[in-house]
Amino acid sequence: MSEQNDLILEIKGISKSFPGVKALDEVDMNVRRGSIHALVGENGAGKSTLIKILAGIYQEDSGTVLLNGKPVVFKSPNEAFNAGISVVHQEIKLSETLTVAENIFLGNLIYKRGLVDWKAIRLQAQDLLDMLETDLDVNEIVERISIAKKQMVEICKAINHDCHVLVMDEPSATLTDKEQQLMFNTIRKLNAEGMTIIYISHRLEEIFDLADTVTVLCDGKLVDTKPVKDIDRKQLIAMMVGRELAEEYPKEHFEPGETVLEVKSLNRKGVLQDISFYARKGEVLAIAGLVGSGRTEVARAVLGIDKFDSGEILYNGKPITNRSFKAAVGKGFGLIPEDRKLQGVIQIASVSDNICMVNMSAIIKQGIVRKALTEKYGAEYVDKLNIITPSLDTEAQYLSGGNQQKIVLAKWLMQGSDVFFFDEPTRGIDVGAKAEIYLLINDLIRAGKVVIIISSELPEILGMSDRIVVMHEGRIAGELVASETTQEEIMSLCV
User: Fold this and answer.
1) Cα–Cα distance between 212 and 191 in angstroms, integer?
2) How much is the average pLDDT of 2-28?
3) Domains of the chain (ranges plus CATH)?
């Protein structure tokens, strides 16, 4: 086969601009038929924009896309889908009120004698789920299943037609280690059967584990395309960020101070059992565990989002009762949630409005929101946290994941919070932005704040915490000192 015929996808000189932002600047990328081709770069590098052009969500301003040697311009996602390009987006796009089977076959129903053949749909949906080795019930309503299982439904939906190019945008971000390995096995199986896969991930170990070739974008421009076997992790990071990072986990260590938060024998029937831990000034406490172990549920109980049956919470030595999240916020608690796009920022609100949304009393005078004050505080925290944005009026949806995460942190800093819960603090964030978030965590500890990290990434937990509470099935399985333990020891407690 000639080199030209070996290319299933050719991207030539693609450019795309948005108001105030040039997202892609004459980008080239050739994808070999039957390969696993990684696409990497910092948040804002242009990866998602390029994928959305391939998916028919955006149309390029200039340049050409060739599929099997023929120029294509997809004016809708349906056109791309019918041409054989399926995309599993980072943001889950399922119909929450439909069943698993209905979602998998949405837009691709099976008919028999003019009627929808629901029996065939459920059987074929079950076959796809069995291939992914997941225990999902095809009749389960999607809003009732976990984020990890929703991701599995997305993958099934994407491959449920004559798919030639499967694009996966951060597919493993919400999955447990076991679920990741099952997904990787599925990817390898699909690839072995001839499917071409474009794989986007900030987890560099996945790139080296799965991909044949890697293309790096930076600030909307092509940096280079190389065989994965020809580069190492340090070289790839330097290509992505345009510089060498001194440390991936720049943890600073401080002398632990007094205990600020203490949780005693917290119980919630069927969810949490006898949860006890403490958090001190001067240290980062990590809560580790597999998805479903109760990590996030602990934070939700402490923050008054979920009710608990029994137990006690002490704050600065005094018992408190957070009857609502609003009450917790008033006492000095803040939450950087796992899903920042849905729970952390208002996508269509401006940068400055998002920063000020919690501490509204600071910007309301005589019953009126003062724009001048909103801009003042917005500018202050954009500068403090080095938030990269075209303007204070730019909608949050146009910022990278890392900069959106900084906005979430900024609103709690403006509120004057003292206890910060970070739930998956760097999920879907590139390696350069991760380092910036870690440095901001150091700044919080230095300023006498309390930081509690909930994370699925064991290297992050080991690299950025002082003590680790490990959870398993709603209970605390053990407590470890980060500098004296290993990933294997943590995982043994997790399972």
Assistant:
1) 11
2) 84
3) 7-241 (3.40.50.300), 259-494 (3.40.50.300)
